[in-house]
Amino acid sequence: MTLTTALFWLAPPLLLAISLLAAGHALLNKRDSRAAFGWIGVCMSLPLAGPLLYLIFGINRVNATARRHYVTKLPKDTAGTEQTPAGTAFRPLSLVGENIVGKGLTCCDEVLVLENGEALYPSMLDAIASARHKVLLCTYLFDTDTTGQQFVAALRAARDRGVEVKIIVDGMGERLSVGRIGPQLRRHGLDFTYFNPLTLIPPALNLNLRSHRKLLIVDNDFAFTGGANIGDRHLAQREDNPHRVLDIHFRLRGRIVDELEWAFRRDWHYCQETRDLRPFTHTNPARPDAPVWSRLVLDGPNKALDRLNDLMIGVISAAQQRVWIMTPYFLPTLDLVGALIGARLRGVDVQILLPGTNNIKPAHWASRNVLRHVLENHITIHYQPPPFVHSKLLLIDEQYALIGSANMDPRSLRLNYELAVELFSPALNAELAAYFAGRRALSRVVTLQEINRRSLPERLRDSFAWLFSPYL
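Predicted structure:
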């Protein structure tokens, strides 16, 4: 038997075996039945080409890569949390995060809402200037403009006073700024590291697995977190600022500061590949009479995958009065949309506040493709006027708020490393509800008729952008 004859008889069963293997992998690993059915069809109908396409595009390597790479564990004591703080009635809302994270609530002495760079940056720079022991900074974008240089100078001055200064900048986020901050930080001798840097040697070109977290820890006194990056773009009152962005950020005090420092240290040790870590200990006291109760929720494509998505679904499903959402990018998962519709059907006031203009046009187009289904179920949506609004906020009933870095889109909820803080406080909820209502008063209602009136080219564009929503 010649080689050609052997290949003639062996090729069909070999190709069938490869197709069955690829189809079986899709059947066992795809969570969406439609995706599984589609890939099975491709693998079985296109011998060799189908399994090859599935190998390249169908297998989700992000989660496996994150689980393999992000293995840092920084043990800490769990004392000081409360499942049901005395004098409070946070359940069942507080039970959702407790089951997801596996711990109770942490006391928080103060939450200060800081709107836009005009309020945020002076507060951050003053805190750095008063630092005595440590300044820990983590950000996604760190621009090299005037604001960025002010932070570099403040960090240098703190380092020169003998303060411990550590800085984490996302490896991809840095490249989205004009000019790179990393070389400047190194030139000034600051202790700086990248989160998942992009390098040619050794090859590390993964554009996903980004750290979208924003944190500033000063001593054991202050923790800043929210959605704002560092740069002139957040100076919203400057009319001559062509890229100005509206945002809200938060300054926290109390034992939650220790929790956020633990999150920073954990990322730092991951970036530095540190091993044999000493357990992290809290320094702020646990106060049983705290005015605000809080919980840190870390989310990422490693073992923390889907935490924030599940948390949002859980608290929205537990809502009795209102669900108010402010997000710059609205591309929710189907189960999250189902939770919103279910809340509306229970008589809950569901309102979504989105930017009317977006800094990422394909994300705006893809979002418009989703809005039709949401509006058909009588959920109220408003578009905020320019400039672009980057604020992220979820308010449930009259005592729950979720703040942090995450957007309501697949990139935040499936690919990025994100950080969120649950806040339980009627007084704080009322303050944030007033902020939400103020923004809503400036906005216009989005109607189903408006979405249905889109021209055919617009609908095709929006639907095509929606196909790529996991990567926007």
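Summary: Residues 135 and 165 are 5 Å apart (CA to CA).
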